[in-house]
Automatic annotation (TrEMBL):
Organism, scientific name: Insolitispirillum peregrinum
Source taxon at top rank: Bacteria
Location of the FAD-binding PCMH-type domain: 38-217
Family matches, as Pfam families: FAD-oxidase_C, FAD_binding_4
Biological process per Gene Ontology, one example term: respiratory electron transport chain
Keywords: FAD, Flavoprotein
Co-factor(s): FAD
Record's protein name: 4-phosphoerythronate dehydrogenase (FAD-dependent)
GO molecular function: catalytic activity; FAD binding
Length: 472
């Protein structure tokens, strides 16, 4: 159904004139997409102020047969928040309040539109730590993080966003509100409904609020950038780090030499501190909430043992908070640095941690055989098996000619991943970018179950259609 003037009047009556955006300049930020692969077309953006207004807008859309694209910070990488010209964008940005904190229960109840970085700061105020952390944390919203089950740098120790959520409030496709804002560690009263919406990318309902877990505040952290000459040594280093520290490893990030070179070349304040070049680097961080734990002594003894065993060949230990920030700036800035080198074909994949070296060895050989001169740029959260297997175009190759190979590269990389019992989308979600890919790779029974859920919960098909799974 088209968005008519009469329908716009209905929306204005529900949320106010200022919360209904129709001018092109006002809509523009909601129509752009991070990678530039898609372009939104929605004629209107609605910005409700609370759950009741979200429910009213959803009901109006359901009655009119107009589909909705929920949108948080619009930082997704798979086209999950991209709209069509007959759709309404429902932006949750005005819903940005912390509804309550409980430092005894170690929980925080929040609106879905809260910026992730603001929630980290709010937890810090209460002497706690909210561990979800990723490159877009200054603009992404917790509702979007939940809807895509975002990962980030601390999954190894704290889990994905799914693991950090105790309860949800959700507006369903018919406008009803499910109040599941329970701050319980245990609740075995039937189906775990929250898990239908976490990772659902707004296709089954719109998350409007959440109860989040927080943890005791960190008293100390130790960070180092380590050089590794053999990719097979990386998983041995991770195992040693976990056992040596008593599982105090917060992050364990792999960076290839090419990715490191791009960061040094294009990011301000990033320089190569090593005398020699190495094929692989690991950014490792230990942390503890226990005061006077002498984490530094433990960290140094771990590094000495790893060096003596020949697992690492060199390393730089951060001596200050500023040096720690610089090391993380290098790692988190790699995607931005890549943009300066031309087009990139990107893969967000996961394999079992023990299989990471084999995956990288096989996948690197396969893609370079397919296109000589290709510049692979793998990096990522090897501590949980998630590798961002990005492929930068060869020097001098035409951009469009290179991007035309996206499907070929997908098949090469994804075939290896699936053969190794991995996932073709580790933390970025499916969106519309990977809808056909998951049909290609997922078991038919699994796809049928997903479609059954979609049809049962959204029979009119108005919730973010064309994303994650098509009804048929």
């Amino acid at each position: 159904m088209a968005v008519t003037d009469a329908f716009l009047s209905t929306l204005r009556s529900l949320v106010g004139d200022k919360a209904v955006l129709t001018d092109a300049s006002d809509r523009e930020p909601y129509l752009t997409e991070e990678r530039g692969l898609y372009r939104g077309q929605a004629p209107v953006v609605v910005r409700p102020a609370n759950t009741a207004e979200v429910a009213a807008v959803v009901k109006a859309c359901a009655d009119a047969g107009i589909s909705i694209v929920p949108q948080g910070g619009n930082t997704g990488l798979c086209g999950g928040a991209v709209s069509a010209e007959t759709q309404v964008i429902l932006s949750l940005g005005r819903m940005n309040k912390v509804r309550g904190v409980d430092p005894i229960n170690f929980t925080m109840t929040v609106d879905a539109g809260c910026i992730l970085q603001d929630l980290q700061a709010e937890a810090d105020k209460m002497g706690c730590y909210f561990p979800l952390a990723l490159g877009a944390q200054g603009t992404c919203q917790i509702g979007g993080n939940l809807s895509t089950n975002a990962g980030g740098i601390n999954v190894l120790r704290y889990g994905n966003t799914r693991d950090l959520c105790l309860g949800l409030e959700v507006v369903l496709p018919d406008g009803r509100v499910w109040d599941g804002l329970r701050a319980l560690g245990k609740d075995n009263t039937g189906y775990a409904l929250k898990h239908l919406f976490i990772g659902g990318e707004g296709t089954l309902g719109i998350i409007t609020g959440a109860v989040l877990k927080v943890y005791p505040g960190l008293a100390e952290r130790q960070t180092a950038l380590l050089a590794v000459d053999d990719i097979n040594a990386v998983t041995a280093l991770l195992a040693k780090a976990r056992s040596w520290s008593g599982d105090a490893v917060t992050a364990f990030e792999l960076v290839s030499r090419f990715a490191f070179e791009l960061a040094c070349r294009h990011l301000s304040g990033v320089n190569d501190p090593f005398e020699e070049a190495h094929p692989w680097y690991v950014l490792v961080e230990f942390s503890t909430s226990r005061p006077n734990a002498d984490l530094r002594g433990l960290f140094e003894s771990f590094l000495e043992a790893a060096f003596e065993d020949g697992i690492i060949v060199d390393g730089i230990v951060a001596e200050s908070l500023e040096q720690t920030r610089q090391l993380w700036h290098m790692r988190e800035g790699i995607p931005e640095a890549q943009k300066h080198e031309g087009a990139s074909i990107k893969h967000d994949v996961a394999v079992p941690v023990s299989s990471v070296p084999e995956f990288l060895t096989r996948a690197l050989a396969a893609v370079c055989e397919r296109l000589p001169g290709l510049r692979p740029c793998p990096f990522g959260h090897v501590g949980d098996g998630n590798i961002h297997f990005n492929l930068t175009q060869p020097v001098g190759m035409d951009k469009d000619e290179y991007l035309a190979l996206w499907e070929d590269m997908n098949r090469i990389v994804h075939d290896i991943v699936v053969e190794m019992k991995g996932s073709i989308s580790a933390e970025h979600g499916v969106g519309q970018l990977k809808v056909e890919e998951i049909i290609h790779y997922k078991d038919a029974v699994e796809i049928d179950l997903m479609r059954t859920l979609k049809v049962a919960m959204d029979p009119k098909g108005i919730m973010n259609p064309g994303k994650v799974v098509n009804p048929q």
